[in-house]
Amino acid sequence: MKIVHIVHQYPPEFRGGTEVCVQTLTAAQQARGDEPFIIAGSDERSPEGELRLEAVDHVPVCRVLRRPAENYSMDNRQPRVTAQVLELVAGEQPDVVHLHHTLNLSGDLGSALAAAGHVVVASLHDFTTVCARFFLCQPDGTSCAEAFPLPSDRCISCVLPDFPPGEEALAVELAARGDVAAAEAAAWSVALVPSQIVAQRWRSSGMVPEQRLVVLPHAVSLAGAIPGPARDRSDGRLQLVTWGHLAPAKGVLDLLEALRLAADTRLSLLILGAPIDADFAELLINAAEGLDVSFAGAYGPGELPLIVDRVDLAVFPSRAEETFGLVVAEARALGLPVITSDRGALPEGLGGAGTTVPAADPQALADLLRELLDDGERLERWRRQARTDLADPAAHADKVAALYAQALSHPAPSSRTSHPGDGP
């Protein structure tokens, strides 16, 4: 099959959970003989809105650069970008277009592609279709999960502080976003969701027909890794680690506060990842002052296995309504026990490899960490369960191929009944 993947960014420019999942899938597709082609947005802007064609791990990638005035907003449609992407896809003549994320591109790509006759399969990595903050989480950590589906009037108070044009303009864009979201959902021939809780939320929204919604957990590129032996804890210490996209919603500040509340010199923390901006980097450094914390900075895909013999426990206390939690799957693939918050799909992704604490509750996390300092048996029990039920990339790509075939057989009403790969 020839597949065009559309994603808001792509490595090496940026490496977040969505990007890693797409990279893992395209590598497996190429290995099985498919022809993936990636159209990616970028944080970089260009006066000409230029295209940059390159290869990443032998997969062709075309980066679409928006112009300086084509910035993200509540109504994220960019007609020029949409036309540019449509032209690119038409030139590739794919069997299927796999839509992952449109943040740095244009918010109406799914409906535009379907109207042009392409069969569109969507992976709902987060809730960007309806939520300007992506993970149903307001800046103060308040969850909007119970208010789903969005957008609603609730979004005005959430977004207005970051929306200079003002409340009247925001209300207009909010209504437009709702209309675009409905059109996008109608364009998906198949909508892949990575967890049961995400499926439940989309079912309750009424936006996606039940027969088009498929639960398929993401593959883990580290699934074939061979974890080393557990660290020797005869020193009595508990070495914690966390990694990923370091943003306020990920709960790293809660983890640092938990270490301060635990007030035990046997606890230490290794943090991998680049902060979202300089202001948040300063917050992290200030919060870590006086604690046994090491910042390792940005990391590459091959670096995680190298830390296993230095740490005992991975901790991801996110405040966001996570839809999967790739970092949890990565930790489990490395044989590490895990603590997560109780938000979104994180508890679902734990299996028997760890436990949860309430989100935004550093005291509860501190109490648990103090317990685990002297409970090696519980850590070992979690460790034994870590590598069970992880999705392998090759098997995952085969399941995705079967879903592409399903989409081609039963396209959304806005897609044509034939596709470029068909005969006359």
Task: Give an account of the 3D structure.
With 424 residues, this protein is α/β, with parallel strands linked by helices. The chain has two domains: 2-219 and 393-409, 3-Layer(aba) Sandwich (Rossmann fold); 222-385, Glycogen Phosphorylase B (Rossmann fold, 3-Layer(aba) Sandwich). The chain contains 13 helices and 14 strands. It has helices spanning 17-31, 79-92, 109-115, 154-159, 167-187, 196-205, 252-262, 278-288, 326-333, 346-350, 362-373, 376-385, 393-409, and strands spanning 2-7, 35-40, 51-56, 59-64, 96-99, 120-123, 188-193, 213-215, 238-243, 267-272, 293-297, 313-316, 338-341, 354-357. The strands form two sheets. It has an eight-stranded mixed sheet, sandwiched between helices. Strand 12 (313-316), helix 9 and strand 13 (338-341) form a beta-alpha-beta unit. The longest helix has 21 residues, at 167-187. It starts with a strand and ends in a 15-residue tail after the last helix. Residues 417-424 have low confidence and may be disordered.
**In the CATH hierarchy, what is the class of the largest domain?**
Alpha Beta
CATH architecture of the largest domain: 3-Layer(aba) Sandwich
What is the count of distinct domains? 2
Question: SS-based structural class?
Answer: alpha/beta
* Poorly predicted regions: 417-424
Total helix count? 13
Shape: globular
The third-level CATH topology of the largest domain is Rossmann fold
What can be said about the biggest beta sheet?
8 strands, mixed
